[in-house]
Amino acid sequence: MSPSAATEVAPPEGALDGPSLGPPLRALARRSSVAFRRRPGSLFPVVMPLFFAALSTASFQRATGIEGFPEVDGFLDFLLAATITQGVLFGGIQAGADMALDVQDGFFERLLATPVPRLALLLGHLAGAVAFAALQTVFFLVVLGIGGASVKAGPAGVVVLVLYGGLVALAIGGVMVGVALRTGSTEAVQGSFPLVFILLFLSSAFFPTALMSGWYRDLAEANPVSWMVDGARELVIEGWSFGAAAQALGVAAGLAALTMAFATRSLARRVRAS
Amino acid sequence: MARSGPPVEAEGLVRTFGSVRAVDGVDLRVEPGEIFGFLGPNGAGKSTTVRMLTTLLRPTAGTARVAGFDVVREAGRVRRAIGVALQDAAIDPLMTGRELLDLQAVLYGIPRATARRRAGELLERVGLTGAADRRVGTYSGGMRRRLDLALSLVHEPAVLFLDEPTTGLDPMSRLALWEEVRRLNAERATTVLLTTQYLEEADQLAGRVAIIDQGRIVAEGSPLELKARIGAPTLFVTVPDGQEAGARAVLGGFGDLRPGAAGALGVGLAGGAAEIAAVVRALDGAGVRTEHVELRAPTLDDVFAEVTGHRLEGAGGPAGGGPSGANGDGDGVGAHGPGGGRRGGRRRGGRR
């Protein structure tokens, strides 16, 4: 290294000493939200659950009279938690597909070439998905509210349901983003759609487990989706209960913790592999 | 934060993928303020080397320092000091140019006010002010490349890596991008390492060029120095099928045989144009029909052919040449031979 070849490397003008986590996290979350807003496919996780809700209500309205069916004012009340869960699960798949697209087309590599902490790339992306899920939840509450559904737990229940939507988005987003980071394939992420569907239908989301029988009931009762949906539903149809709120949020948070661990490991693996 | 040393320095850089040695012991030193060209065909190891230098890929062996920092142990510091525009201009099509510049600025920790000012300046600089608030998905290839360049400059990097910056661009967009790189280098003394598979690009832009083939640097120097190694111009001769052996024997008597392309044979002709008639007469005397002859001053493609034994993928026919049709250092003299006439469908004449 000859002295004549020396070069001084100064930090960028106005740059912080090192990029902190907050601003990049917010900027990446904003970008993720922009993608949700501008992609026409983003309507799917909003419209499809409403379609299912309308169809199920028309088909099963009289089922509310069956002995063993929870006490509800209408089938839409029973479905509200399921509609939120379904919409947010679909949104989470979209978050994974967006990440896979970033990996596939090289945008993720562009982000990796910046000095931003690696974890911010993951958290920022998922923060956008969580924000979208919160908006979805509010939207479902309003639309199904117009249709006649109401949250018996009142404003506190609404707050819990919005938090619940965010946590479910984090849980499903964690899995999907993990898959995206491991495979870098949108097909792989979208291919998991039927699995999510099965998970949802093998739960108490659309029908009470009390009215199921045999292996189907066993599977539904063992399915964590049932546990969290039942907690959320209790707030809607029975009223405020700390136990129900804790069940809805606790199960969703537990699942989110597991899937975030998976996503973080997937991120580390991708960064290592590159 | 300051660190002295060459902007880019690599020793024995190796990267393997399974049993494939994509980069096989690259030594590199780029001096401050220079535009350094990394020239080679597809799959030669250019992009893999750049990915290691930009911390996106860990070297299997060897060391590299960029902006004075080790690319493995001080990867974060390297990232802060460099700008990177990778192959294919990976840009989110759903965002606008301005939004992407804002995002990039935040990722480098630049305060909002400074970021806004700089985004405006950069958009102006790359001629995208009018399209700044349009989604990138509506941009042309040239616009995307220019935005890509602007993104890599947001934090005013000391070292700029451009990986095949003009691949796929039309000639006008290519020229505009070259101009921008030159201006950047001249005004801010930004050190630029660019990879290219285009001879003309390396010739036009780079002060020094390293030619890489099969993961190894096979020649290095200024384009003039490299071409001077070749010395004599090359005469490319096209003969009918089945007469190559006879032609080769004749041509060997006039100078060193050089790799040709697209069915042409090449020979170094120390006497230049004055010897063409003698060559054609000798071929005629040996019963070899000459279909086409063309004399070319040494090009980087000749250098490449000389050191590797084959010509650059994508370079022109016998006369080499760049992607836009200009061959950079031209001076070609072409003629159809006495028995000649162009063979249908065969390309020659060096422009592609």
Question: What does it look like?
Answer:
The complex is a heterodimer of chains A (274) and B (352). Chain A has one domain. Helix content of chain A is 73%, strand content 0%. In chain A, α2 packs antiparallel against α3. Chain A contains eleven helices and no strands. With 274 residues, chain A is mainly alpha-helical. Chain A starts with 21 loop residues before the first helix and ends with a helix. Chain B is α/β, with parallel strands linked by helices. Chain B folds into two domains: 214 residues, Rossmann fold; 111 residues. Chain B has a six-stranded mixed sheet, with helices on both faces. The longest helix of chain B is centred in the middle third of the chain and has 18 residues. The termini of chain B are far apart.
Give me a quick take on this structure:
Chain A is an all-alpha fold and about 270 residues long. Chain A contains 11 helices and no strands.
Name the average pLDDT of chain A. 88
Beta strand count of chain B: 15
How far apart are the first and last residues' alpha carbons of chain A, in Å? 29 Å
What is the CA-atom radius of gyration of chain A, in angstroms?
Answer: 21 Å
Counted by DSSP, the helix tally of chain A is 11
Which word captures the global form of chain B?
elongated
Number of helices of chain B: 11
Query: Biggest interface, and residues per chain?
Result: A-B, 42 and 55 residues
Identify low-pLDDT runs of chain B.
314-352
Could you name the ranges of chain A where pLDDT drops below 50 across 5 or more consecutive residues?
1-18
Give the spatial strand order of the biggest sheet of chain B. Answer: 6-7-8-3-9-10
How much of the polypeptide of chain A forms β-strand, as a percent range? under 5%
Q: CATH-wise, what's the superfamily of the largest domain in chain B?
A: P-loop containing nucleotide triphosphate hydrolases
Helical fraction of chain A: over 70%
